[in-house]
Q: What sequence folds into this?
């Protein structure tokens, strides 16, 4: 049995309805009356798609070029200079197209200027890649390492020579820069937060929580050589050990009352203003200029890096999980302390437990006073000031006292169904950063590479990444680059 697949392209010109001759695309041979090989194989399907794509793209390009052979101003026929070929990368393989160069019409040229040539097809296709291929490369590279994403696409689609590991990484950088530029434009166009008594709590956004992660930094060989040369120039008395850098990624999640949570992330060193980044995320999430949201974070510095000076964040709530862990460390040190009598350990543990529940109900002052009273009582024990319990109680009282302004009535919030923990931010870090960039793939990252990747990954996880949106981003990036070249 032989299956012959042919392609026939019919012209759409009104003057003639001539049909071109059929082109043989593929020939599939199978044994008669046998079900050993059912249907097309993967290799045959890939080859068939590649042939169909080649025929279609070639006819489309030839038909478009037929309308570009005359001057758009005076209508005269443009002279042909030469013909070259350009390669277009598509989802179904690379397609080579003829791109003729034409002499520009003299109707728009100034006197004395040299005659110039134009290449219409090269001008209209500056990227040499279709949006669908960009979309697939960026989407799969947001979930898998660059090499695995490339191998997956090459296995399923006829892209053996169409993409590579380097092209996938460059695609992520380009798309990440485009998404980042769009966010910066949204920051400029966003309305300024209002001030006054009419400001109210947002009814659409439940809360926002932020956290951070650290990745190993990847320096270039040139930078490493410069660091070694600088160390050799220093005297042995002033030489310092170079500390290994890390890439700091801030990630956050917002919960909503009417839809699923959304994520945002960035590399701290790659953004001009972290507070403006948070305000833009909240504005696109539906927070109005006269509304405010609550931010939950731990005491690791994320509040100062990501939330402070924000116009749409009402205030900060300290994460209850970290508070409970401080009390847990103090309770564990009671059972391991040799300066406390065994019969006295239960009463000390009860006092620490009571102080914790005072914080739970918002009585911060009473909790600190109770911890200090317990510390003063235990000072009568010999060797107490050198024990771990003394250190944990002092650290606990200082921790609660220093964060007094961010402690609330956690019990009341819990019974109202409001969040009291930054676990939503920690899960955001695992989802955005750890699963792709740290846990299973022990990779080193640059600030730029990590920042671009998290922009793409967040857009994919939020469901905001599409072929149409990527085409608009690419068109806007090309327009901005052409304006910059003209200005230069």
A:
């Amino acid at each position: 049995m032989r299956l012959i697949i042919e392609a026939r392209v019919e012209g759409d010109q009104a003057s003639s309805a001539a049909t071109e001759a059929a082109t043989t695309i593929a020939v599939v041979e199978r044994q008669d009356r046998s079900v050993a090989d059912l249907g097309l194989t993967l290799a045959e399907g890939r080859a068939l798609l590649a042939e169909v794509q080649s025929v279609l793209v070639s006819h489309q390009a030839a038909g478009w070029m037929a309308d570009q052979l005359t001057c758009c101003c005076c209508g005269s026929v443009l002279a042909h200079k030469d013909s070259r070929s350009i390669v277009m990368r598509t989802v179904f393989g690379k397609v080579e197209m003829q791109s003729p160069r034409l002499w520009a019409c003299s109707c728009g040229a100034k006197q004395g200027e040299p005659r110039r040539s134009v290449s219409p097809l090269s001008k209209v296709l500056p990227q040499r890649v279709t949006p669908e291929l960009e979309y697939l490369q960026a989407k799969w590279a947001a979930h898998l390492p660059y090499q695995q994403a490339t191998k997956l696409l090459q296995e399923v689609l006829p892209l053996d020579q169409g993409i590579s590991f380097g092209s996938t990484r460059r695609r992520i950088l380009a798309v990440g820069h485009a998404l980042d530029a769009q966010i910066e434009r949204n920051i400029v166009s966003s309305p300024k937060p209002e001030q006054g008594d009419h400001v109210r709590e947002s009814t659409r956004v439940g809360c926002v929580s932020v956290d951070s992660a650290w990745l190993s930094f990847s320096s270039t060989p040139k930078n490493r050589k410069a660091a070694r040369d600088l160390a050799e120039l220093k005297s042995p008395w002033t030489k310092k050990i170079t500390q290994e850098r890390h890439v700091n990624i801030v990630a956050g999640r917002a919960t909503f009352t009417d839809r699923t949570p959304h994520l945002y992330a960035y590399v701290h060193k790659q953004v001009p203003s972290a507070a403006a980044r948070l305000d833009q995320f909240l504005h696109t999430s539906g927070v109005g200029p006269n509304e405010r949201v609550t931010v939950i974070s731990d005491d690791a510095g994320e509040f100062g890096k990501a939330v402070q000076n924000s116009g749409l964040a009402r205030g900060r709530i300290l994460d209850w999980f970290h508070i409970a862990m401080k009390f847990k460390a103090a309770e564990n040190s009671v059972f391991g302390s040799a300066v406390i009598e065994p019969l006295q350990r239960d009463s000390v543990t009860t006092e620490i437990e009571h102080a914790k529940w005072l914080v739970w109900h918002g009585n911060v002052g009473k909790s600190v006073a109770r911890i200090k009273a317990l510390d003063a009582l235990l000072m009568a024990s010999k060797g107490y000031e050198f024990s771990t319990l003394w250190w944990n109680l002092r650290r606990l009282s200082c921790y609660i006292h220093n964060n007094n302004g961010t402690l609330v009535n956690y019990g009341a919030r819990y019974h109202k169904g409001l969040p009291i923990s930054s676990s939503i931010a920690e899960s955001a870090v695992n989802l955005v950063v750890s699963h792709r960039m740290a846990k299973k793939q022990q990779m080193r990252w640059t600030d730029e590479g990590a920042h671009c990747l998290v922009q793409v990954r967040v857009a994919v996880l939020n469901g905001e990444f599409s072929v149409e949106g990527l085409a608009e981003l690419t068109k806007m990036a090309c327009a901005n680059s052409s304006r910059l070249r003209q200005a230069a």
Notes: Residues 322-405 form one domain. The two ends are 64 Å apart (CA to CA). Residues 42-66 form the longest helix (25 residues).
